[in-house]
Amino acid sequence: RKEVEQDPGPFNVPEGATVAFNCTYSNSASQSFFWYRQDCRKEPKLLMSVYSSGNEDGRFTAQLNRASQYISLLIRDSKLSDSATYLCVVNRGAGGGNKLTFGTGTQLKVEL
Amino acid sequence: EAQVTQNPRYLITVTGKKLTVTCSQNMNHEYMSWYRQDPGLGLRQIYYSMNVEVTDKGDVPEGYKVSRKEKRNFPLILESPSPNQTSLYFCASSLSGTGSEQYFGPGTRLTVT
């Protein structure tokens, strides 16, 4: 089992749609969780951190379920500019060294 | 402007010819790391550094070397490149390790023939 698993997609959605991505992680000691966005083989950029209580940033909502070890990202009112690959990122906790594990990404295509 | 820079951005080389990819950040970050990205495998960490003169192996360190003599620079060295090191390489820095935002450089696309 991969340490971080994501559905690779692509998710093709019409503009204005709501889309949700899930990500599961295997290390129960993980402490920090993030969603990064990557455009077309460019550098990843932080979209948002994910907190236990859930957090929202405009049209984006992130949730963490520690018991089931999954993270979700919800995008409301999709824009064409949201088309990108979304990377789920998890740190490995104290026992895993100072390292991050990246999922392989979920590709989103927003269409007219 | 706060940024991470990498050079070169594109490099085609031959097997066995030593090369260095430079990485520099101007944010006074303590933590720096190198990743490679390959289709279907995601980003995998090669080496990281917690501070000057402190480096450690990531998940795929074989065939690579690093050094951290100054806080702002973290070069990646391939002593004898091989075709399986053909990849997209990213340098990243962060203020305080894996709990904080990683700032990535623009990437270096390396082809080893």
Key terms for this structure?
heterodimer; A: 112 residues; mainly beta; 6-stranded mixed β-sheet; 5-stranded antiparallel β-sheet; 51% strand; globular; B: 113 residues; 7-stranded mixed β-sheet; 4-stranded antiparallel β-sheet; 11 strands
How is this structure best described in words?
The complex is a heterodimer of chains A (112) and B (113). Chain A has strands at 4-6, 11-14, 19-25, 33-38, 45-49, 55-57, 60-65, 70-75, 84-91, 100-102, 106-111. With 112 residues, chain A is mostly beta strands. Chain A starts with a strand and ends with a strand. In chain A, the strands form two sheets. In chain A, strands 2, 4, 5, 9, 10 and 11 form a six-stranded mixed β-sheet that branches. Chain B is mainly β. Chain B has strands at 4-7, 10-13, 19-25, 31-38, 42-51, 54-57, 65-66, 76-78, 87-94, 103-104, 108-112. In chain B, strands 2, 4, 5, 6, 9, 10 and 11 form a seven-stranded mixed β-sheet that branches. Chain B has a four-stranded antiparallel β-sheet with strand order 1-3-8-7, with no helix packed on it. In chain B, a hairpin with a 3-residue loop joins strand 4 (31-38) and strand 5 (42-51). Chain B is globular.
